[in-house]
Structure prediction request, 155 residues.
Amino acid sequence: MSSTETATRKEIYDLKSYDPKRSIGGLLGRVKMEMVAALDAELAPLDITAAQFVILKTIAAGEGGSASGLCKDISYDPGAMTRMLDRLERRGLVRRVAHPNDRRASSLELTAEGKAVYPKLQAAGMKVLNGFLRGFTPTEARQLEGFLQRMLENA
Prediction:
């Protein structure tokens, strides 16, 4: 898009018509809160929280090599992350592995037990997402994903 097109494009929100409860930001925030609550409820029988699931999912995907990397990836406070990893380690789901080239660093990986429970966690996550997408067609869901991806690219 050229700078002329950008300059002449009408802004989506203005002070007169802006309604925080109906705005994209307000709606995304409410959807996220409801999804977290639904995921917490769905994962309760497995004694896993939504926050723990996000950490386990990130480690399983190979994206959270270290505690500091996880903090950056999922915007989590370092102190809270350490406590969460300690809990997951005590539960036998995650282990810290010494980094071969840096004694001060450790990598994170799922244990055998973590790998065994992970498919149940994924199934719970998909169940929650599918519940929120009830009434959407697959095409509409892909379209929504595309819109959200565009918003991330604009960030």
